[in-house]
Amino acid sequence: MKADRLLKQIENMGVRVIAGVPDSTLKQFCDGLQTYEGGLKHYVTANEGAAVGLAVGAFLASGSPACIYMQNSGIGNIVNPLASLANDDVYGIPMLFIVGWRGEPGVKDEPQHVFQGKITCKLFDTLDVPYSVVDKNTTDEQWQEILTRAKTYLDKNLQFAIIVKKGTFEPDREFVWQNSSTLNREAVLGRLLQIVPRDAYIVSTTGKISRELYEQSNAQFGNHDNIFMTVGGMGHASMIAFGVAQEKRDKTIVCIDGDGAALMHMGALPFIASQAPENFYHIVINNQAHESVGAMPTGCQSTDFSRVAKAAGYAYTERIMDEKGLDSLAGTFGSRKGPVLYEIMVSLDSRKDLGRPKETAKENRDAFMKNFK
Questions:
Q1: Maximum CA pair distance of the chain?
Q2: Which domains does the chain have, with CATH numbers?
Q3: Which of 2, 60, 187, 209 has the fewest Cβ atoms nearer than 10 Å?
Q4: For the residues 181-190, what does the mean pLDDT come to?
Q5: Cβ atoms 287, 311 nearer than 8 A
Q6: φ/ψ of residue 319, rounded to 5
Q7: How high is the mean pLDDT of the chain?
Q8: Pairwise CA distance, residues 339 & 307, whole Å
């Protein structure tokens, strides 16, 4: 199935709004959203639950159902608004879900996706949302049957999900987006490992940031034992780092975050600020995109995290745009009491041969925890 064709069919079902968070399994679908020339209004939301809220509002104002796309890891973010607002026992708001199935049983995937993959269909069963599973072998006739079935539920003000296996969508017009930043992210991360004191402890966010830190730390120091790589749970690295900082107040704790992740659960910023952990240093690597899953813009490219954090109450914030800013950071890091946030603007460049951690998630956990014994 080509994305453009599916989007036309979705629009023909009466959908006028499509919103969600990008996913690598849905890469071709997401590319199609950026180049689609039909009448759909498209929004990349901060998280999947926000997309459900948007869908509720769009229906209230127009009477038309919305479509929400996501990776299956985002199901957790939709549970509350779906169960307490959209469900037929409450307001009865129709919506169509397009869900990328990471961690499909029997298909090798990254550790953070394995359990989520096992329970994906069970979650929709529990949420009382009927669904169909599609893959590259789903015929046009079967697609039409699925969409016809979906519309019968939408017409009754109910929800329906289409669970998408890897390789379902055919490559079409690839969407390529670039920002104006010149700093290379992996080079910046390598530099940060030299700037941050060696006895500091780092919590890094999911995606390529953790993968690049892993390789850079191994190359520079021969290990990565002081880095906890948050391979799943997008948006929660800062609160994990805060938890560590509160328990180990004599240690310097650094959270290396991504802009998409920071957006997903931005409420962490005022909470951390209110707790005022003096040993907490927050670094947001901002390329204005969900780069790890296909480089789609976040939808919030104009967000200045340094200003947001300052307004939230961080003790000091700064936005770094170039090598000169990194040089300045090298000379001042750790001189101010936290919470401190540095936002570093980077390009979307990444290596094609970027590796993945060889250790299991539990081995990473144990190596990190040994530092505190």
A1: 65
A2: 3-164 (3.40.50.970), 185-370 (3.40.50.970)
A3: 60
A4: 94
A5: no
A6: -105, 125
A7: 93
A8: 14
